[in-house]
Write a structure and sequence with these properties.
This protein is an all-beta fold. 3% of the residues lie in helices and 34% in strands. The protein folds into 2 domains: 53 residues, no CATH class; 101 residues, Immunoglobulins (Immunoglobulin-like, Sandwich). It contains 1 helix and 9 strands, in the order H-E-E-E-E-E-E-E-E-E. A hairpin with a 5-residue loop joins strand 7 and strand 8. The longest helix is centred in the first third of the chain and has 5 residues.
């Protein structure tokens, strides 16, 4: 059936309609419409007469704070360790950069927003690494889940130079 409809018919050209919309031009009556993709500049064509030119909103740079991981690497005790309050706990860490003059490492016991200094180390004492041995129950009087971290400080101003990640630790109080 369809063969009969088109049989013998010569192909015909089809005309396509296109609309012409003039782009904004500079002149006495021209106005700049923000967001239209055209910046109107009077006079000869310039690099400014392109999207993003005058009248177009531009991106505003935002300051971004990037928190880089510290160079202090915690070695032990492992995350989620459990100790009794009377246990002697040894904290180990490493740092590729040796301590400078007047610098010290401080091991902090963290309970929410409260930090308690357990002790400090002023020189490498385990080869090129560091160790602090303490009884946390002497500084903390309650059981619970805490965190610990190592902070590199300037000894005179107590300014923080570097810090490690925090590690969870649990302390049990004996009856």
């Amino acid at each position: 059936m369809s063969d009969r409809l088109f049989a013998g018919a010569a192909p015909r050209a089809t005309l396509a309609a296109t609309a012409f919309v003039p782009s904004p031009t500079a002149g006495p009556g021209a106005t700049d419409v923000t967001g239209d993709g055209f910046g109107i500049v009077a006079g000869r064509a310039t690099p400014w007469a392109v999207p993003g030119g005058p009248g177009e909103p531009t991106a505003t740079p935002e300051s971004v704070t990037i928190s880089m991981p510290g160079t202090i690497g915690l070695l032990g005790p492992p995350a989620d360790s459990i100790f009794r309050a009377t246990d002697e706990v040894t904290f180990y860490w490493t740092n590729a950069t040796p301590l400078g003059a007047g610098q010290r490492y401080v091991v902090y016991w963290v309970d929410g927003s409260t930090q308690v200094a357990l002790g400090e180390v002023r020189a490498a004492n385990l080869g090129g690494n560091y160790r602090l041995q303490v009884v946390p129950g002497q500084s903390v009087d309650q059981a619970g889940r805490f965190s610990w971290l190592v902070v590199l400080e300037d000894g005179s101003s107590e300014a923080i130079i570097d810090r490690s990640e925090t590690r969870p630790i649990t302390l049990l109080i004996e009856n």
